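Case study B.
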Amino acid sequence: GENVEQHPSTLSVQEGDSAVIKCTYSDSASNYFPWYKQELGKGPQLIIDIRSNVGEKKDQRIAVTLNKTAKHFSLHITETQPEDSAVYFCATHTGGGNKLTFGTGTQLKVEL
Amino acid sequence: GAVVSQHPSRVICKSGTSVKIECRSLDFQATTMFWYRQFPKQSLMLMATSNEGSKATYEQGVEKDKFLINHASLTLSTLTVASAHPEDSSFYICSAREQGPGSPLHFGNGTRLTVT
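Model:
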């Protein structure tokens, strides 16, 4: 089955700096790569996603890059703000297109 | 945007009782919903895939007689934890897909279950 690794597990940045979270996956058939933000006590919220036919996607301060050859994709957050502090999960679409496999999560802390 | 509502947000029950959690897609129809379990500081573990009008598909190791799933309509799926025990205490989260495979998955806000 699919194996998704996510790094780092924790990340502290100063407000205004950039944050980068990376994920690698094993199933070359994976074709959809979403990123979720989870705040304490809440469910994950989809923040950006990318499909395998695209190498990069940007939405304001958030961007995702995908390298299908190397089987890794990354989340980039620029000009970080305290409200960006949360746990971020990457995921891949597997199982014939029906299931998501999640990474292990990254606790991002944006310090003032 | 697509909204998934989950109820209750918190429940405390005594060991041996059953607990029902509801998951509703508010502004779209969901032929498929998913139920996850999350332990503190860990990732989401898929428990089962709920298909409208048919039996749920359970992941390996998940007891289908313990975690009963019903997907009676295109907007509602329920998870019943039967005869709950303290080890069932966890954060349960449902999700629903707007369209077919490959479309975005939207999550409810989870249910914190505590079994005493």
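The radius of gyration of chain A is 13 Å. The remaining cases will be described in the next quarterly update.
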